[in-house]
Design goal:
Layout: E1 2-6, H1 11-21, E2 31-32, E3 38-41, E4 59-61, H2 78-84, E5 93-95, E6 98-101, H3 111-121, E7 127-135, E8 140-148, E9 156-161, E10 164-169, H4 180-197, E11 201-205, H5 212-218, E12 224-231, H6 234-249, E13 265-269, E14 287-291, H7 296-303, E15 312-322, H8 326-339, E16 342-351, E17 359-370
Bound molecules: S-adenosylmethionine.
């Protein structure tokens, strides 16, 4: 097959040129040549050697390079692939070196073959698990290991999100990488609140899971002074504690010095609706995160007493609601704040796109000032 030999630094330029002229051969790739040049494979329609289009670059003849498979299905039996094309998994989720995939009933008998093909395609994956659905109040996934690279079926693993590491375990604790943008949004809003208050913040995250939101906040120099974080799931609290110890310990100031210790730095295994019964937690926090999407709005009256009174405080939460009920749910949030003795500076209630067709996944953010009397309610 004819190839265009070009200096390595010009490879991208010539690839783009050949692609736009439709001169690029398909199903093969670029070959590295001895001496540092790269060889770009050409099809029949590309001009001959010596053509002015090549700007003096030579054409050479080389065997076509086999292109590496780019999808797990390329490692799957071709007949079975053709037969079950519509039922095979189209998507999967990875958490660190664990891959989680939903397998349709109709192709369940092929589950191990699917997993083997995925392991072959994805060298960074150690374990493939079938996702059998979410269970219990802690919304933890029922996972069935299908194939393991090293024989271990341990689902605890470490992920990197927005530059920081977190321990996760999909078989024991809820975690969704899809919400990473929401955590970035939380960070942006927290920075605005810090500016408003002209001091670092105390954050309450009573449904923290493994602590991804705290990860975003603690990674920002001098944003957080202290936190109260917790979860009702003891397995979540174990990972949360490990993550917060790690994240807290590597904090730096803007000038790169080790940051002062966080105070408070409290991790609790408790029902969030009961936090208000602890006087230390009432009137304690500048920023409150409420992430129990099926119950966030109902729980609000129990949580608002955690916010500091007599200043601007920030409530940020997430809710899954029926599409038709947007106005009603927004009213419920407003009423909860007013009944807690609050004045609302602003309330945003916006859909986070791409989660479900039937329900809305909403983010709400309220900037409030709670009157001191709200403590007594
Ligand atoms: C949707 S997850 C959110 C976790 C985490 N904030 C995140 O973004 O990954 C909700 C968490 O709330 C916890 N949970 C459920 N009911 C709770 C309660 N009454 N009090 C405290 N935590 C609760 C669950 O165990 C789960 O980890």
């Amino acid at each position: 097959m004819r190839h265009l030999s070009v200096p390595s630094a010009q490879t991208q330029h010539w690839l783009e040129r050949c692609r736009s002229e439709k001169w690029l051969a398909e199903h093969t790739g670029v070959t590295s040549l001895r001496g540092g040049n790269k060889a770009i494979p050409l099809n029949q329609t590309a001009p001959p050697e010596g053509d002015a289009a090549w700007l003096g670059n030579a054409l050479i003849v080389l065997a076509a390079k086999e292109k590496a498979p780019s999808h797990w299905t390329e490692h799957f039996d071709a007949e079975l692939l053709k037969h079950h094309k519509d039922d095979l998994p189209k998507a999967y989720e990875t958490q660190g070196d664990v891959l989680i995939v939903k397998i349709e009933e109709s192709v369940w008998h092929l589950a191990e073959m699917i997993a083997d093909a995925m392991l072959t395609q994805l060298p960074s994956i150690r374990l493939i698990c079938a996702d059998l659905g979410v269970q219990g109040d802690f919304r933890v996934r029922n996972l069935e290991p299908l194939a393991s690279r090293d024989g271990s079926t341990e689902t605890m693993t470490r992920i990197k999100e927005n530059g920081y590491f977190l321990w996760v375990d999909a078989s024991k604790v809820y975690f969704s990488a899809r919400l990473s943008n929401e955590r970035t949004g939380t960070l942006q809003s927290a920075k605005k609140l810090k500016q408003r208050l002209a001091r670092p913040l105390v954050v309450a995250d009573p449904y923290a899971g493994v602590g991804p939101s705290m990860g975003a906040l603690l990674s920002e120099p001098s944003l957080v002074e202290g936190y109260y974080a917790g979860d009702l799931n003891p397995d979540a609290v174990e990972l949360l504690q490990a993550n917060l110890t790690y994240l807290g310990g590597r904090r730096k100031t803007e000038t790169g010095e080790p940051a002062p210790a966080l105070a408070p730095s409290s991790v609790m295994c408790a029902d969030a609706t009961q936090w208000k019964t602890n006087p230390r937690l009432c009137n304690s926090s500048d920023l409150l995160l409420v992430n129990l999407p099926h119950d966030s709005v109902e729980h609000l009256p129990h949580l608002l007493p955690l916010l500091r009174t007599g200043q601007t405080s920030l409530l940020r939460g997430w809710a899954i609601i029926d599409r038709a009920n947007e106005a009603t749910e927004k009213n419920k949030i407003e009423s909860a704040i007013i009944e807690a003795g609050g004045t609302i500076e602003s309330l945003e209630f916006e859909e986070v796109k791409g989660f479900s067709a039937s329900k809305s996944f909403m983010c709400f953010e309220a900037w409030v000032v709670l009157a001191a009397e709200s403590l007594s309610s």
